[in-house]
Each structure stands twice: as structure tokens, then as C-alpha cells.
Amino acid sequence: MPMSSQAVKRSGFTLIELVLVLSLLAVMLSYALPQNTALDGRRLQKEQQRLSYLISYAKQQALQEMHYFGLGIMQDSYVFFRLEDNQWKTLQRSKLMKRHQLTSPAHFKLLLEGRQIVLLKEDITQPHIFFSSDGQLSSFKLSLINPQQGLEREINSKDLRRHRGML
Q1: What is the dihedral of CA 160, 165, 166, 167, to 10 degrees?
Q2: What are the chain's domains?
Q3: 145: which strand partners?
Q4: How far apart are CA 61 and CA 106, in angstroms?
Q5: pTM of structure
Q6: Is 150 left (phi over 0), alpha (psi -120 to 50) or beta?
């Protein structure tokens, strides 16, 4: 059969159109990925600031109420305690002091007195870090880590002792 002078209709995209679309997508992704890393860095920094504030607040409450307070650390969460009748009870009275879950994939690493502590995934019944009624604070180094982005933020007892009256 001879071909007519009319062009044959074809459906689909040409190779040039596909390459152009893929190139544009690659450029758009290259701008989005660094911003995502910066966003994760800001989240980790906000978590560090929040927890630093809460630790200072718990330390201040221990002094004011003349009770022992504590902070329990799990792999990806933390909870505050108060010693009542020789038993550690989780704090439920304040929304800020209730158990707090980190955003995935962030997790904690804890050193107490220079020794690394194995952190559990499940709930705990007593604290790792103690705030005494006379202002004493356990010696600790707590790291918030996002392994996917290679980010790490640190809270340590030495820095908290230096900023004693900052609340």
C-alpha cells in the first residue's frame, strides 16, 4: 500500500520531550533536598532548645517545691518524673512535662558520669537524670541525633550549671 501524503498520527512523547521533563524534575529536586536538610536541622535545634528549657524548668521546680525531680530518656522519647512517697511518678499535671516523642528518625544518646547508657524503646519507671531539692544536677551529656542527615545537637549538665539564673 502506498503512503498517502497525510502524516501518520502517533501517540506518545518524543525522546526530546522526555529528556526535557526529566531535566526539569532533576533541577527542581536539587533545590528541594538541601532545604529539607536545613528543615531537619531546625527541627533538631528546636527539640534541643525545648528540652534544655524543660530541664532548667524541672531544676527550678525541684528547688521551689523541695522535691526531687528526674528525667527519663528512652531511645526516641523522654518523660519527667517527681519523687512522691519514695516512688517515682511521671508528671501529668503539665502538658509540657508529659512524655514527648521525637520526630522520626531522630533518637537520643546518653552519657552519665562519662558512661554510655543503653536506652530502651519501651516506657521506663524511673529517671536517668536527677534534679535534687538543693539544686544539684546529675552529670550528663545528652545528644539528639538524626542519622539520616548526619546531624547532632547536644545538651550537657555543665552548660546548664553555667546558666543557673537564666529562667
Answers
A1: 100
A2: 43-162 (3.55.40.10)
A3: 107, 152
A4: 28
A5: 0.73
A6: left
